[in-house]
Every structure is written in structure tokens, then in C-alpha cells.
Amino acid sequence: MIDARTGVDASASALHPDEYALFAQVARSCPVEAGQKLFRRGDHGAAMYVVANGAVELDFGDDLVGKRLGARAFFGELGLLIGDHARSADAVMAETGELLELGRDEFELLAQRDPALLAQFLRRAIMRVVLNEQALIARLRRRNQDLQEALDALRSTTSRLDESEALTRTDELTGLTNRRGFAAHVEQRLQAGGLDGHVLVLVDCDRFKSINDTYGHLAGDRVLQSVANLLRAVAGADDIVCRLGGDEFCLILSGHAREDAERIAGYVTDSARMLERMHNSPPQMTTLSIGACLIGTGSHAGWEHWYALADDALYRAKRNGGDCVEWLD
User: Fold this and answer.
1) DSSP per residue, 287-329
2) In this prediction, what percent of the chain has a pLDDT beyond 90?
3) What's the chain's average pLDDT?
4) What is residue 190's predicted lDDT score, i.e. its pLDDT?
5) What's the pLDDT at 300?
6) Which of 54, 94, 139, 219 suits 316 as a labelling partner, its CA being 20 to 30 A distant?
7) What is the annotated localization of this protein (predicted)?
8) Residue pair 74/13 in contact by the 8 Å Cβ criterion
9) Cβ count near 295 (within 10 Å)
10) Quick count: other Cβ atoms within 10 Å of Cβ 7?
11) Quick one: pLDDT at residue 91?
């Protein structure tokens, strides 16, 4: 909802329910009586607050419009993010209630527990700072240097959190998307219109345990990296390739006919076989078993059905001795 007096979206001042639940896990709970002064304009502080219940009034002085904050509203975030920041308003508890206080230690806990959700909050916090800054410029014809520093700090923090989130979705050994990232990609595709017509390909390394036992885990790691490079090479821009864990990989081919997908899967097994023969002591590659299925257009079956189908096809390939492709549709 847009505040007609300031032009700023009032909802930007409140935490989303999932954000509030996360913040409440780590914040310090502070009961506060009505009329109690929280801080004065110009005071230096290094914490932010969230209204759990009750209400808080902010008085910015001069001719600036004050604010009344209710449940889940947050304020004072620049003190936390910049550190030892001069408060821009007087804050008074208007109704007896409870505040959640977060300092630097609690902020670090938030980043550890859910970097993606914290990044979401910081992006909205940046937007609120930008909108408030624009409103102040329109009214006062001047820029506040502290806000510019806050933007720089927030952008830097958000960038680091985005990088951290990307790392949590990437397999460290191969650089491919990991199982968590794969699940997120699938969910995005399903929300965007589904996976009808896509081809699901599950890949398993043949005799991988024997390679580890005979040549050691470093040799096994090199084999996994070679498999990842092979799958990466055949994947198109809209395809998804990931390492599910251990010696299991997955490929979702987008916009490919069944015949094209069969050709790609055959190329993968043929290439792996050839590379295994070229470098066999210690091995750089191993033969591969592949189970695949075409996700049916117009079918009401869920993702779990298609994954189970491809997994059954993979089991059939392994049972047939490996180094082959099996399909179930």
C-alpha cells in the first residue's frame, strides 16, 4: 500500500511472515512499556528492531512526516548494517508491547541459517532506502551521505549473500548444480508452465566403487569431473545438468524430440566408453548407465512419477550390465 504523504510503499516497512519467523528465532525479545523512549535523533546505535506487538512512533523532526509502526514492522536497520549509525528519528513506544532486537551477532546467525531469505529482506530494505531517499530529495533538495553509504553497504552485503546462496546450490567437486539447486530449477520450471515434452535422463557411473577401492578417491574424483564435463558439453542453454550425489547425475533436456534425446544419450555412453579405453590406468572415465523417459505432454502425472520412471529405466540399464541406455515412457 502506497503512503499518499510520502509516496513510499508502507508494506516495505514490514517483514514478510517467513522473514519474521526467521528473525524471531535469533533476536532478543524486549518487553517495552508505552511511553518509553527507545532512542533519540542523533543517538548512535548498532542494532535494528522489529515490532512483535504493540506500536512504535518515529518522529523525524523539522517538517518531515512521522510514522507509526505496528506488528512485524522493522526500523533502525541502518544502525545494524552500517554500524554505530546516527539515528534519524526519535523512537517512542506508543503502545505497550514487545520488540525484537538484532545486533551484529544475530545478523550473522541470520546469514548462516537462511542466506536466501536474508538476501530477499536486504533487497527490500535497499528499495525502501532508495524510495525514502527519493522522497527526502524531493522535499529537501539534498542527498544524505549516510544513506549513500548504506546503499553501498547493503549492495555489498546482498552481493555476498547472493554468492553464498549460489554456492549452496553448486556441487563443489564438479561445478554442476547440486541436488538442492536441481530441486529449485525443477520447481521454477513447474511454476513457469511445467516440464511437458522435456526428457529426463538419469546417469550412473558403472563400477565406480571398484575405481575408488582400486585407485583411491582422487582417481574417483577425476572420473566424476570427467563425467560432469561430458554432460556439460552436451547440455544446451535451456537444459539442466546436475550431480545428484555420489556417482549419480541428472540431465533434463528441453525442447528435444525423442529421437534427438536418444541420439544425445547414445553419444554420452559412446563417448564415455571411448574415453575409458583411452585412459584406463588410472582411469579418467568409466562407462555409464542411463535411464531416460519423455515427460508426457498433457499428462496429469506429477514430477515424482516421471522421476520414478527414469529411475526404473536406470535400474534396468544397470541390471543389463551397464554401458547402455534404457527408456521407459
Assistant:
1) -EEEEEEEPPTT----HHHHHHHHHHHHHHHHHTTSSEEEE--
2) 53
3) 85
4) 80
5) 64
6) 219
7) Cytoplasm
8) yes
9) 22
10) 12
11) 94
Q: How many CB atoms lie within 10 A of CB 176?
A: 25
Distance CA 61, CA 75 (A): 16
**SS3 at position 119:** helix
29: phi then psi, degrees, rounded to nearest 5: -85, 130
At 174-208, the pLDDT tens digits run: 999 999 889 888 888 888 777 788 999 999 999 99
Positive or negative: CA dihedral 191, 162, 169, 273: positive
Catalytic residues: 247
Nearest Cα to 265, choosing from 293, 229, 307, 237? 293
Does the reported pTM lie above 0.70? no
Q: What share of the chain is helix, strand, coil (3-state, %, to 5)?
A: 50, 25, 30
5 falls in which pLDDT band (50, 70, 90)? very low
In angstroms, the CA 163 to CA 112 distance is: 13
Q: How far is CA 263 from the centre of its chain?
A: 34
* Distances from the Cα of 175 to the Cα of 245, 279, 286, angstroms: 12, 23, 19
The correct CATH number of 10-168 out of 2.40.160.60, 1.10.260.40, 2.60.120.10, 3.30.2350.10 is 2.60.120.10
CATH 3.30.70.270 domain residues, the chain: 179-327
For the chain, residues classed under CATH 2.60.120.10 are 10-168
Inter-helix orientation angle 115-140/145-168, to 10°: 160
pLDDT value of residue 167: 52
Cell 555412453, residue located: 269
- Name the more confident of 132 and 18: 18
Task: Indicate if the pLDDT at residue 15 is higher than 60.
Answer: yes
**Cβ-based neighbours of 290, under 8 Å, separated by 6 or more:** 201, 202, 203, 204, 265, 268, 269, 313, 314, 317, 324, 325, 326
Cell of 174: 564438479
Which residue would you say has higher pLDDT here, 288 or 300?
288
